[in-house]
């Protein structure tokens, strides 16, 4: 069950500068679509300048009309100015029509794909231990949600620089030429509103920190109600109302936080609008006064009068939409950069040395924020080609030890040497080269049977049928109508498998990967002990010559191992063969005697492979 929202330490997170976000996002746009991005910039510049020229041409038009009426100008000149104004308008409107196409292409296509690829590439480099932390999952969730924010910042931020800025510079020069005092009122429109926008990122960032864990809760409860992995149990046990009420509660809490944010933002918008309106009225009054005093011509009055509304709208749009959303999205975009700056596993490249096996020397490990060590002062040597079973009660540290032995976790104390490589100093890619495993919580991928198996080793192009036979996956027309290309998902017009069939597919996936070290970490915990023995006997047969590790809290399968490692409270308390440990009459013998009734028919276990009904 997801944790409840709590006050986080994220208030102390390092701030990310807007400059860093702009530089980062611009690099992505230039890399993925240089021509389209250049077209976006050029059209923005043309659009901004055309708005300024419209104001200038409008002044000449009205002055020419006045002169034509008095006989000082020809009517032909008036029509030429009208034609020029029409052309500029058409160019501006054509660019307006082109802009949404460019934005759609850049928003929804290459940049989004590229930034998603970057997130997943980063996830592959993060220390797997970080993923045990719920706060890290919040950061991942926020990073995914920040992609649109970065796109908005780059697209519309560049609009400010290439469209709005040229237009306002043009109008500033123009108004200063008419009467310098006009610039003062223009400043009154801009400055207070711009200052107010810096409040928005704080409002949004505070909301996002609170809302992200609540959204994860809401998603969990929703899946518990409708997901096919949950709904049978929730309906059968009458748990629907429990999850539905939790879903509604999280939805209400999310709505409450969003309402708080919107109230703060709307109040800010009200203040900013009042300031902008005051500036708008002020410049109109100054314009009328200047006309009556003969300081400007009728053409200048008309040009400024018609453009002032556009200027006001552009200012409102710039401040309330562009800058408002930019500063708001800045709060979101920081999450993306922070995620990319999370510490990575790092290390050096190395090549596994076949035949070196695995050794652990005085290894200790403690999970972040945990009070006690999960693994405490463990020393163990596993030879190449040896099969070792690691047993113990739930919580004894078995799985944690295995994760240390295969390099998934770095030891807090001591060191682990895997195939000649120190797991603390070598890159994960090098460590996992030649390592395979099947785990208790194996995944049921909604893909074809071929894809379910091939994903463990994409460079290997054959032998799927052989591996399926080894794992006991019977590819018959009843279970797999399209053979190895059968889709394993009813949601995608395929078939579903039983729990036992999925277990066989998971084992086939682990076997398919070319490996020197292979682990079975209780992938059969959901089936009965006798059938587990069938699977482990076949596993040992397949993994001959490899370093094989079996993790279990059941004793019935340990006879097949060369050695048995017994763990209790994070320590190795016994080690030896099955027969040696039974004669010792220690913890292993006690556990075996307790479970012996589960295996009273164990003599019937075939040694040649997994029975057709074994799973």
Automatic annotation (TrEMBL):
ABC transmembrane type-1 domain location: 38-322
Location relative to the cell: Cell membrane
Domain ABC transporter: 358-594
GO MF terms held by the record: ABC-type oligopeptide transporter activity; ATP binding; ATP hydrolysis activity
Major localisation: membrane
Pfam families the record matches: ABC_tran
Keyword ATP-binding: yes
Membrane topology, record value: Multi-pass membrane protein
Keywords: ATP-binding, Membrane, Nucleotide-binding, Transmembrane, Transmembrane helix
GO cellular component: plasma membrane
Membrane spanning stretches: 35-58, 78-95, 152-175, 181-199, 270-292
Keyword ATP-binding: yes
Coiled coil spans: none
PROSITE patterns: ABC_TM1F, ABC_TRANSPORTER_1, ABC_TRANSPORTER_2
Protein name according to UniProt: ABC transporter ATP-binding protein
Organism: Bianquea renquensis
């Amino acid at each position: 069950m997801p944790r409840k929202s709590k006050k986080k330490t994220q208030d102390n997170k390092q701030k990310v500068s807007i400059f860093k976000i702009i530089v980062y996002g611009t690099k992505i746009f230039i890399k993925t679509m240089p021509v389209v991005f250049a077209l976006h910039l050029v059209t923005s510049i043309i659009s901004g300048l055309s708005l300024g020229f419209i104001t200038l041409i409008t002044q000449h038009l009205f002055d020419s009309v006045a002169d034509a009426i008095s006989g000082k100008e020809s009517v032909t000149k008036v029509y030429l100015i009208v034609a020029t104004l029409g052309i500029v308008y058409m160019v501006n409107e054509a660019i307006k029509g082109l802009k949404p196409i460019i934005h759609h292409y850049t928003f929804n296509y290459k940049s989004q794909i590229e930034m998603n690829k970057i997130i997943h590439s980063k996830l592959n480099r993060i220390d797997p231990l970080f993923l045990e932390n719920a706060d890290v999952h919040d950061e991942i969730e926020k990073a995914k949600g920040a992609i649109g924010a970065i796109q908005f910042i780059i697209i519309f931020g560049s609009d400010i620089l290439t469209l709005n800025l040229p237009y306002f510079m043009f109008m500033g020069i123009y108004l200063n030429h008419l009467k310098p005092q006009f610039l003062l009122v223009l400043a009154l429109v801009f400055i207070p509103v711009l200052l107010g926008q810096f409040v928005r990122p704080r409002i949004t960032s505070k909301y996002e920190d609170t809302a992200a864990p609540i959204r994860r809760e809401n998603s969990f409860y929703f899946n518990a109600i409708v997901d096919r992995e949950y709904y049978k149990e929730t309906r059968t046990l009458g748990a629907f109302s429990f999850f539905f009420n939790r879903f509604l509660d999280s939805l209400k809490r999310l709505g409450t936080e969003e309402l708080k944010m919107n109230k703060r933002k709307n109040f800010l918008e009200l203040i900013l609008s009042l300031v902008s309106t005051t500036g708008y009225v002020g410049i109109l009054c100054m314009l009328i006064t200047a006309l009556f005093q003969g300081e400007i011509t009728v053409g200048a009055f008309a040009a400024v009068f018609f453009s002032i509304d556009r200027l006001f709208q552009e200012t409102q749009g710039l401040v309330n939409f562009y800058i408002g959303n930019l500063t708001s999205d800045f709060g979101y975009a920081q999450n993306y950069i922070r995620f990319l700056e999370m510490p990575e596993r790092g290390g050096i490249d190395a090549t596994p040395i076949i035949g070196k096996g695995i050794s652990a020397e005085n290894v200790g490990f403690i999970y972040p924020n945990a009070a006690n060590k999960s693994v405490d002062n463990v020393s163990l040597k596993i030879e190449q080609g040896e099969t070792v079973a690691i047993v113990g009660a739930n919580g004894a540290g078995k799985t944690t030890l295995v994760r240390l032995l295969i390099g998934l976790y770095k030891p807090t104390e001591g060191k682990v040497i895997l195939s000649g490589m120190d797991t603390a100093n070598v890159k994960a890619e090098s460590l996992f080269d030649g390592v395979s495993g099947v785990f208790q919580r194996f995944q049921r991928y909604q893909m074809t049977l071929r894809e379910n198996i091939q994903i463990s080793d994409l460079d290997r192009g054959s032998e799927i049928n052989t591996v399926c036979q080894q794992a006991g996956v019977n590819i018959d027309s009843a279970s797999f109508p399209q053979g190895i290309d059968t889709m394993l998902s009813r949601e995608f017009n395929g078939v579903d498998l039983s729990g036992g069939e999925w277990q066989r597919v998971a084992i086939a996936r682990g076997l398919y990967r070319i490996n020197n070290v292979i682990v079975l970490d209780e992938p059969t915990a959901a089936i009965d002990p006798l059938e587990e023995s069938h699977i482990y006997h076949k596993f040992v047969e397949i993994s001959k010559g490899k370093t094989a590790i079996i993790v279990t809290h059941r004793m019935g399968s340990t006879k097949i191992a060369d050695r048995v490692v017994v763990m209790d409270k994070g320590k190795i308390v016994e080690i030896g063969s099955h027969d040696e440990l039974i004669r010792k009459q220690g913890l292993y013998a006690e556990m075996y005697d307790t479970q012996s009734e589960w295996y009273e028919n164990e003599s019937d276990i075939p040694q040649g492979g997994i029975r057709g009904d074994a799973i």
